Amino acid sequence: xxxxxxxxxxxxxxxxxxxxxxxxxxxxxxxxxxxxxxxxxxxxxxxxxxxxxxxxxxxxxxxxxxxxxxxxxxxxxxxxxxxxxxxxxxxxxxxxxxxxxxxxxxxxxxxxxxxxxxxxxxxxxxxxxxxxxxxxxxxxxxxxxxxxxxxxxxxxxxxxxxxxxxxxxxxxxxxxxxxxxxxxxxxxxxxxxxxxxxxxxxxxxxxxxxxxxxxxxxxxxxxxxxxxxxxxxxxxxxxxxxxxxxxxxxxxxxxxxxxxxxxxxxxxxxxxxxxxxxxxxxxxxxxxxxxxxxxxxxxxxxxxxxxxxxxxxxxxxxxxxxxxxxxxxxxxxxxxxxxxxxxxxxxxxxxxxxxxxxxxxxxxxxxxxxxxxxxxxxxxxxxxxxxxxxxxxxxxxxxxxxxxxxxxxxxxxxxxxxxxxxxxxxxxxxxxxxxxxxxxxxxxxxxxxxxxxxxxxxxxxxxxxxxxxxxxxxxxxxxxxxxxxxxxxxxxxxxxxxxxxxxxxxxxx
Length: 509
Description:
Elements: H1 2-30, H2 35-38, H3 45-56, H4 62-77, E1 85-86, E2 91-92, H5 93-128, H6 133-147, H7 150-168, H8 176-194, H9 198-221, H10 231-250, H11 256-271, H12 273-276, H13 285-306, H14 311-335, H15 338-344, H16 364-402, H17 405-412, H18 417-445, H19 449-455, H20 460-469, H21 473-501
Antiparallel strand pairs: 1-2
Helix pairs in contact: 1-21, 5-6, 5-16, 5-18, 5-20, 5-21, 6-16, 7-16, 7-19, 8-9, 10-11, 10-14, 11-13, 11-14, 13-14, 16-18, 17-18, 18-21, 19-20, 20-21
C-alpha cells in the first residue's frame, strides 16, 4: 500500500508539473495584461505600463516566467513564497482562492451530497422496478433533466422557486384545485414506487393521496408557512418512520433488536427536545458538531446494549436513526427563527442573489437560516442535473450486477430479496459510481460557472471567468492548480475506494 501511494503521488506530481507548464503557456498566449493601458489616454500611461511589466515580469520570456512562478509556488508550500498577485485587485492569489474555494465548497458539498443520496436511491428503485411505469417515468425525467440547459433551469427556479414562492407567502393558502392536484400526483408517485398488484396500488394511492391532502389542508389553514415548526410530536412520528426505514434497509424487520434500538433512539431524541431548547440559544458550529457526536455515541451504546446476534448491526441502525432524529431537531430549531428572518428580508425570505444577506445582524440560527435560503436555488439547480446522471448510472450498474451468476446463487440459497440486493448487489453496483463521484466532485469544485454567474456567487467559477476576461494570469493559474490537484487526488481516492468495495481488487497490483 505504501509503495502504491508513493508511486501514485510521484506520478501525480509529474502530471501537475507538466500540465501547469502547458497551461501557463496557454494563458500567456491568450492574455495581455497591458491591453487596457495601451488604449488608455492617461498622462502617466508609460509609467503604469512599466510598473505592471515589473510586477508581472512581462519583460521575461514565458518559460523563465513559469520557473519564477514555480519557485514562488514551492516557496509557498514551504511557508516562504507566494503564488503571485492579482494586478487588478492588488491581492495575493492565495487570499482570492481562500474566499472562492470556501464559497464553492458550501455549494458543492450540499449539492453533491443530495444528488448522490437521491440519485442513487431513485436509480436503485428504478432498477428494481424495471420496465414498469415508475421505471419509464424516472427514465424520461432523467433524460429530460440531463438535457435541459443549466441557465434555463436557474432562471425558472428564480421565477417560480423564489419570486413565485415569496409572492405566495403574502397569502399562503392552498386552494381546493391545488390541494386535489398535488394529492393525486403524490398518490400516483407512491403507488408507482410501492408497486404490487392492482389492489395494493389502489390502497397505496388512496392512503398517500389522503395523507397529502390532510397535510396540505393543515399547513394551509394554520398558516404554517408563515411560522413553520416541527415540534416533539411531529419529530417523534417522523423519527419512528425513519427508524423503520433504516431498519428495513440495514438489517430487515426480522432483526427486532436492531428495530428496538432505533425506536429507543427516537424516544431519547424526542425526550431531549425540550431540554435542548435551553442549550440552543448558546449554539455555535462546534457545539452543534459536539451534540451530533454525543448523539452518535449514545446511539452506539443503545445498539450495543440491545445486542443480538450481531451487535454491529444494532449499533449501525441506531446510529443512522440518531442522525435522522438529530437533523429533525436541528431543522425544528432553525424554523423557529423563520419569522425573525422574514422581517430581516422584508418578508421575501427566499434569496435570488449572493451567498449571504449583506449587513445581516442575527444570532447563530438566523445566520444559519440565511445561508440555507441562499443555498436553495443554486443547490437545486446543480442537484437536478447531477441527479439525472447519478440515477442513470445507479440503475444501469445495479441491473448489470443483478444479472450475475452469484446473484442467482444467492437467491437460490433462499436469501431474502433485501439481503440479496443490499448485501450482494448494492455494494458491487457502487464500483462504477466510485469512479464517477470523485471526478464529479472535482469537476464541480472547479466552479459551476453558469450557476454562480446567474445567482451571484463569487466562487471558483466566477474567479476563473473574471480573471481570464480581465487578463489577470496568476489567479487563473491558481484556479488551475487547485482544480488540477483535486482532480488528480480524486483519481487516487477512486482507486482506494475500489479496494474497499471489492476485496478482489488490490491497489498495489
